[in-house]
Structures are given as C-alpha cells and as structure tokens.
From TrEMBL:
<keyword id="KW-0862">Zinc</keyword>
<dbReference type="InterPro" id="IPR032466">
    <property type="entry name" value="Metal_Hydrolase"/>
</dbReference>
<feature type="domain" description="Adenosine deaminase">
    <location>
        <begin position="6"/>
        <end position="321"/>
    </location>
</feature>
<comment type="similarity">
    <text>Belongs to the metallo-dependent hydrolases superfamily. Adenosine and AMP deaminases family.</text>
</comment>
<dbReference type="Pfam" id="PF00962">
    <property type="entry name" value="A_deaminase"/>
</dbReference>
<protein>
    <recommendedName>
        <fullName>adenosine deaminase</fullName>
        <ecNumber>3.5.4.4</ecNumber>
    </recommendedName>
</protein>
<keyword id="KW-0378">Hydrolase</keyword>
<keyword id="KW-0479">Metal-binding</keyword>
<dbReference type="GO" id="GO:0016787">
    <property type="term" value="F:hydrolase activity"/>
</dbReference>
<dbReference type="InterPro" id="IPR006330">
    <property type="entry name" value="Ado/ade_deaminase"/>
</dbReference>
<dbReference type="InterPro" id="IPR001365">
    <property type="entry name" value="A_deaminase_dom"/>
</dbReference>
Amino acid sequence: MTAGLNLHSHLEGRVRPATAAELARAAGLPTPPQGWSAALTLDEPADLTAYLVRVAASYPLFRDPEALRRIAYEAVLDAAADGQAHLELRFGPTTHVTAEHDLDTVVRAAADGVREGSEATGVPAGIVVAALRHLDADANEAAARTPARASGSGVTGFDLAGDESRWPAHEPFAGAFSIAPAAGLGLTCHAAEAAGPEAVADAVRHLGVRRIGHGAHLAEDAEALRRAADEGVVIEICPTSNVWTGAIADVADHPARAFLDAGLRLVLGDDNPVQTGSPLSAERAVLTDRLGFTPDELAWLDAAALEAAFLTADERRAVAALLRAPESSP
C-alpha cells in the first residue's frame, strides 16, 4: 500500500545520520560528542525551540553544494523506499548561503538532487523554498526571487518556517509572499504550530495562503475553525511532530478528527522524520491506529493531497497513477 503524498517534509530534517558522519569527515567538521545519530534525533518531547535545535545540528553539512545535492537525492530515495507517491521537500536556502555559494547555487544544488532522486525512483518530487521567521524582509524577498531564476528546476512552492513561538507575526513577510506567485509557486505557511488559533486567519489575510502547516492549535477556537473551513484552508497535519514540539501531549490528542468534522481538507506530512523517527508511512499508521481514520477517510485525504499538491497537470496524473498502482496490481 502506498504511504500517500508527503506534503510537509523538511530537507534539513531528512539527513541520514550515516551520511552526516561521512560528510562531516570529508568537510573536516568535528563529530558531536555522542555521534551524529544522537545529535540529530530527539530524546523526549519539549518545545518548538528545542526541536529546531536538533534540526539545526545538520546545518553545517549544507555549506557544500555537492553535499546538499546528495542529501536531497537521498531524501527522495528514502521517500520512495517508504512507499511515498510524491514528496514536497521544503528547506530554507538562506541559512545555507556562504561567501562562496550564493542563493542560486544553494537552490540549484537541492533541485538537482531532487531531480536525480526522482529519475532514479520514479517518484515525483519538488522543492518548496522557505522564508524564515527570524530573517529580515530583504533576505526573505531575495529567497522569493530565487525560484524565478531557477524556472523549470523543480522549485514548486514557497513557505514560511521557523520558530513561531519567538516570531509569530505574518505581516512582515507579505512582500516575499507577493513575489513568489509571479514565479508560479504555490503558497503555504507554518501557522498555529506554536502560536494560537488566530495565527491561521492572520497567515491567510497577510500572505494569501490556503495551505497551512500544522495548525495544531486551530481547533482550540470554534470560530477560527469555522472561518478556516469557509475560506477553503487545507491543513498539512504532522501528528508525531506535534508531540515532539509540545503542541499536543499525545498523538491521540491530535485535532485531525476535529478538522474533519469542521469540513477542513487535510493532507499529511512527516515534517522532520530523522528527528522524530516517524516517516510518512508511520504517520499514516497513526491516522488509522490512533485516530480512527477509516479507509474511506484515507482515500479522501489522498484526493485532497492530490488536489492541493504543487504539481503540473502531467505530474498530477503521474502521482495519481502511483496512488492507484497497488490496487491494480495482480
């Protein structure tokens, strides 16, 4: 059975620990005191800030474009091995710019790796460039302009990511989100992951998004929930990740059922699977085993993901064929 479409997954959270060790040795980087596996994975749930510290442990590995290309390539291979029919791989390229490698080089390296991974596996995949909450408007607007110069490279979307608990506002990023659509990019935004339910409406109003990453706190306000459904918002749910960031206490507490009951469309992601140890197939199992999703509801989720994904018409048909393939096999 396919694991479905992965519409919320971070490149920085998909670095294989063995690859991290190999790349670090080649770059002359010190080995973390307890090794790369311990440096990258989480010990226990905490908060979003602590969670992002573990994700950021991989950042020094991204300074070399060839290393970045390899990490992206392996991310697609791992998604294919997990049974994923499509992967949207988001990352914050501005974080990985150096004196030797500019934004265009960084984005091109990631896109090359994703394209090579797709060619090797047959799994369609795309890059979602992320603006970052802690950066200023100039830096994020530069990131938004980069995909226009990489037209046809496989960059398909634009996101806002980062520590929402420290930088919750959306209005400062309106300029970047007005630039991205001109390059044909789909729009999404992390919201109500660490901030309150009002963050979803705020992101819709200021950024023009209709896809929201996580939205875990949206269900705390019935009116905010109703408004999101009325506006056609799609929620990218990542239940296990929300436990590790402290948004919910247990996956059984995830508001996916409340979202369904309110008429919201849902899509699934695995966020940072190296940190959480939960790839998309495990997240799909959470939906059935812990949240009571029926086969019909999973099919509904797949249909919503196919519609919401940042795909061309031809790519959408290819992904639909992958979703049908297990059922049509003898």
